[in-house]
Amino acid sequence: AVLSSVVEALSPQGGRAAAEATTTTDTRPKEAALRVEVNGKSVTMGGIAKGVGMLEPHLATMFCFVATDAAVARGVLSGVLRRSVDRSFNRATVDSDQSTSDTVIVLANGQAENRPVEVGGRGLRQFAAGIEALMTRLARMLVADGEGATKLVAVTVRGAASRKDALAAARSVANSPLVKTAMNGADPNWGRIMMALGKSPARVDQDKVAISVGEEFLVERGVLREGVRLERIREIMGDQEYEITIDLGLGRGEDRVWTCDLSEEYVRINGKYTT
Question: I want to staple 118 with a disulfide (CB 3.0 to 4.6 A). Which of 64, 73, 128, 253 is the partner?
C-alpha cells in the first residue's frame, strides 16, 4: 500500500520534493539540471544532492542522485561517474570529517534516443563533460551550504612539483581550521596559509611561494608582498565567493579544492548535535 501511494505521487515536478526530503542540517535543497548535445541529440541531465557536514572526499555524509535521458552503452556509465566524482565531489570539503553515507548514483534511461554513448565514440566527451559540469555545480552547492558557512572559497594550487602535490597542498589549506576561521573573519592572515602549506606532504620551498586572493597578490617569494593592498583583500574576503590562488613555483602540477569558512554557527550546530 505504501509503495502504491509512492508510485501515484510520482511526477515530473517531484525533484524538488525529493531534494527537500533528504535534507538534514542543510538550509536549502540542492538541485541542478542542464542540457547538452550528444551525438547530435539534445540530452537532459538533472540531479539532487544533500550533505553539509562531515563532508570530505571518499567517505562523506552526502547523497547525490543524477538522472539523464541519454542512451549510454553498457559499461560506459561507471567510468564516466568515477571520473566526474573525482573532479567534483572529491574536490569538496566542509570540515574534513567523514561518515558512511557516501553515495553518488547516475541513472540513464535512453529516452533521448541519441546514438548510444560508447567508449571511443564522438559523444563520450560531450556526455562526460555534461555529467562533470552537473556534479561540479552540485558539489559547490553542498560546500556553499556547509554547516554554519558564509563563504564558498576555491583553493587553487599551481606550480607544484606534481598534480598529486598540488592536491595535497590545496587540501591542507582548505581543511586548516586556522585558515577557515581567517576566511570567516575576512582576515588576510598569510602566515596561516603558509603554515598549512608547510604541514602538507607536498614539496614546498617557502622562498618560491606566491599567494593571491582574488586578483590581489598577498605573498611574493614567501613573504608579504611589498605594496600589498590589504584593505582590498579584506573586501574580497568579505564576499560570499572568492578564490585563493597559490603558486609553489616548482613545476606544472595544478589542482583545486572547494571549501568554506569555519564559523561560530558551526560550533553551535555540532555542540548540540546528538546521534
Answer: 73
Reported as a single tens digit per residue, the pLDDT across 259-273 is: 999 999 999 988 887
> Rounded to the nearest 5 degrees, what angle is found at the Cα of 114, between the Cα atoms of 111 and 116?
100
Residue type, 39: N
Q: Is there a contact between 169 and 160 (Cβ–Cβ < 8 Å)?
A: yes
Residues in the chain: 275
pLDDT digit string, tens, across residues 173-206 = 999 999 999 999 999 999 999 999 999 999 999 9
**Cell numbers given for 182:** 581567517
Domains of the chain and any CATH numbers: 1-145 (3.60.70.12), 152-271 (3.10.20.340)
pTM, two decimals, is 0.90
Give tens-digit pLDDT for 13-34.
788 888 877 777 788 889 999 9
Which own/partner contact pairs does 122-128 have at CB distance under 8 Å and 24+ positions apart?
A: 122/39, 123/38, 123/39, 124/76, 124/80, 126/36, 126/37, 126/38, 126/39, 127/36, 127/38, 127/43, 127/70, 127/72, 127/80, 128/80, 128/83, 128/84
CB 168 within 8 A of CB 202: yes
Crossing angle of helices 163-175 and 190-199, in 10° steps, is: 130
Residues classed as catalytic:
61
Q: Which residues make beta-bridge pairs with 210?
A: 247
